[in-house]
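Annex B. Sample input.
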Amino acid sequence: MHGQMAMAQSDDVALCTQAGADALAIAACRRVVQSDASAQDKSRAHNRIGLSLGKTEIDKAIDHYKQALALNPNNVDALLNLGMIQFNRSDLRGAIFAASAALEIGVSPFGRMVALCLRARAHARQGDYDKAFEDFEAGLKAQRTGACLYHRAEIYEQRGWRELAIADYSAITALEAKTDQDRASRDAAFARIERNTQAGGGQNGARVAERSVRPRPCSSAARCTRNSQWQICPRRAAQKPRQRCQSRGRGTAAHGLCQRGQAD
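Annex B, continued. Sample output.
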């Protein structure tokens, strides 16, 4: 009898960890959390249940994520899922803490991208664009995905940097769409390209994207300093320390920006 129970529990653990969110898998996860399974198995089961509830019963999802972390504080998936809910609820400090904790634990390249892009969005919403663009750059270096590019492009667009936004939207359309999220990002990107090119005077996306590789130079009167307004700078200047934008600010080759302050 004990052997049969152990086998049934093992089957539930295996079913709970399978891909997808079908009712049978979630039912197996609920049995796992009520069983004498290991703390790690219960933690994974709570995370899986939380993920299935995330769009409909958010408070219950949060409770399951917290139970998952109580059982296993190193459950990176639960940390990032909780961090995403915190971001969507404008708990930006909580989202940044969750993403940073996941990075400290150690994650796969995909997990690193998710954590860094989540933290970048939270920093941007706080108005800290220095940290936001640094995290976007590092996240896209870990793994280049349409979702992360789309979030960065949205921020470019919100800041009025239409050419850089179109460059990221154009990059999304060139990526292979492997998941539903990839396809959604690609479809949304096409719509954003059309909207921004029309707003920019009817220029086509390819031309504007090409122009964005080398944006207009910094003003000769601009001194780039931290905690000031961003302006577009040439990427080549960011790569050569002796040129103005790098020597006076924080321009990087990845996002082609430096900061603009008051002229001396």
